[in-house]
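User: I'm curious what two different proteins look like when written out as structure tokens. Can you demonstrate?

Assistant: Sure. I'll show them one after the other, since each token string lines up with its own sequence. Here's the first protein:
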Amino acid sequence: MSDAKKIKKQEEVSEESSLNEEVEIDKANADEESCVHVHLS
């Protein structure tokens, strides 16, 4: 029983970390785009 709970918790944590990584990537892409706009203007 406790093993199943541990595994479920690990899955939740890994899902959260992958979501955070996606957010970081989005932020990086937005930063790059804003830099490009500055260079163009």
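Here's a second, unrelated protein for contrast:
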Amino acid sequence: MAQSAQRLDPAKFIGALLDAVEEERIEEARETEQLLKASTPAQIQKAGLGLINLKVGAVRTGLGGKCLVDLEPATPGVDQLPPHKLRPGDIVALDAYAASDKTKTVADSSNGGKPATSGVVYRVADGKITIVLDDAVPDEMRSLLCSTRLANEITYNRLKDTLRDLEKVIDKNPERHVQVLMNQAPAGFSKPPAKLKLFNPDLNPSQVDAIKLCLSAQDVALIHGPPGTGKTQTVVELIRQLTARGERVLVCGPSNISVDNIVERLAKLKLPMLRLGHPARVLPSVLAHSLDVRVRTCDEGQLVTDIIKEMDTKLASVTKTRNRQERRAIYQDVRELRKDMRVREKKVVQNLINGAKVVLTTLNGAGSKKLRGQVFDTVVIDECAQALEPECWIALLKGKKAVLAGDHLQLPPTVKSKRSNHPLHRTLFERAHKLLGPSAVRLLTVQYRMNQLIMAYPSMALYDGKLEAHASVRDHVLPDLPHVESTEDTQHVAVLYDTAGADMHESAGDTSTSVLNADSKCNEGEADLVAAYVRRLCAAGLAPDEIAVITPYNAQVGLLKDRLHTEFPALEIGSVDGMQGREKEAVVLSLVRSNDQREIGFLGDERRLNVAMTRARRHLCVVCDSDTVSTSPFCKGLVEYLSEHGELRYPGYE
């Protein structure tokens, strides 16, 4: 489809986005308040949205003179945190925790519903979580603690500020890529290089074609990367090509993990770069390029490092005194040192950023004061289809050209509002894909993950049949793995367990353990079937960590964990949302819905099932009620495809 002749009204469009962001802010705040009022700290922890029974470990000074506090399990002999969903960048409330009072909700436990203090998650490890505080550790944090994720007002304010900046830019003389994405001008391309000298000679023709398009783009180009097609590998090659041409590049993604994936690959190639923000991965290759490490290791930063050491020594001495006046005196000394450090550090930081040819950060992190006034030749946004459109503009307003990489046929970003015409439901990638058409988009067509039998249905249903399996994965099966026996289960690539007519009806989630399950569904019969199937796969030699059990419903995740986690602690059991970008040798998928009304809820979203089934490399088992799920055309097609090309089974097959 060519670029639409119908002009977008920027003022109306941006106004609608501003209203949508505010609506989303209000909804998230309402949800958070409801959760804190209705849930005990233990329930919050079980839902993965907080941690309880923590103690303060090491305290030290971080970037900007802020206080970094390690929180560790307080229970003697326990050195691992329980499973949780806290991630770098999350804002958390920190409160005193009394294990003896198990009936109080989080709101009741707090001081008038307000936390003792709040901070930002800096780093997450198996045995501790590091929090950034603006100031020294308050006295309230010397008792047992609970940490609960809060709504992030800062993010919403940044999104609204960005949209207002976009309004001002459009009223003046915006960069060409802004005009193109606002449908005020057509996308332009120069003649692509006839011969391209690749840094990575192993790229396939569709990847090379995508890079050529991006290099010839005068304003905007899109890389459409379906599951397993090497999108990130293509983005890495593009970054190398752009820097080789002397360009300055800003690389962003919607999450810390998406950014760290690129940092990790660039680090192996020894490409100079600077990572802003909070890396989610603690790999040395990633941390070595982070701003805080670079500040401390560069020559200019030596004096800053010396001041930090002095501050840390003083902070460590706080724990050795019980005298409140002595503590206050120490904190006053630290504040004075912090002022001096911030002045010196600011200069070092700006010099590092000014000298960086490749800067990597999250989309939200691109709005940092540290990048104010910085201009980049090209802004590359990876996983663009997982980002809200206003997030993308935070980065795009800092560049002269844009490359968007993603797949709008996989999971979109989470939007709280259920309103069908909500502007945030449509991502910038999806809008640009439709707006600009084939001339500005290149589809990556060779996938390196799935057996062709697993790949074929999503390829036909979503990608016009254009995907092809690389020879290295085309026919691979579980028994090809040296530790896996060929059995009735492992010899098949695709298995469908059809529970229609088996009286395995769904039920509502258990609200006694968490208010989060109020709208969720579970299915006891499917959970039993899945548990038995996983046991047989493991008995055949497949390692538990080579299997993923995926289900769209949190309540079903809980049921499956109850049945399998004690027996197989390394087995990954989770929702579709937690698996995007991941892969496993075998995937067992429980669709849950089974009712006489044939209601399927969000199973009708084909993007969700596309992600779920395309995580599998060699084996896919789908458990569902074909009669109920066939209400969805995509599900109906999947059931028919698996019935014809896979192994069709019914409950009681064992």
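A detail about the second structure: The chain has four domains: 35-151, 174-272+357-444, 300-352, 448-649.
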